[in-house]
Each structure stands twice: as structure tokens, then as C-alpha cells.
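Encode chain A's predicted structure.
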Amino acid sequence: MREEYDFSKARKNPYASQLKKQVTIRLDEESIDYFKSLSEEVGIPYQSLINLYLRDCAASHRKLDLSWK
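Encoded structure for chain A:
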């Protein structure tokens, strides 16, 4: 291993903008339990499943039909 490295010609990671960002979100326990049980079935972490679901909703421009009474 070298004592010093020269990073003067280094460049930024071109995929850095595609990295995930950590956020805090409040979800009800039933939703978390649903995704956790689904994650055990398919072998994918539940947080990844939630991300995939939200990404699919955003990609297909799904919107909730809410009406307040």
C-alpha cells in the first residue's frame, strides 16, 4: 500500500445523483407488517419493496382518488 495517493486527476462518481437519499417517513403498523410479510415471501428487504412500489406509482403517474366528506 502506498503512503500517499494522487487524487488530483480523480473525477466525481457519475452515478452519485442516482444514489438513494435517507428520509424519515411515518407509516402505520399495518402497512409495515404487510411489506415485512411480503418481503419474507420474496426475499427482498421490506424497505426495498416499499421503494419499488413507490417508484412504480411515480412511473405510472398514479394518483389517489380522495374525497373528503
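Residues 29-42 form the longest helix (14 residues).
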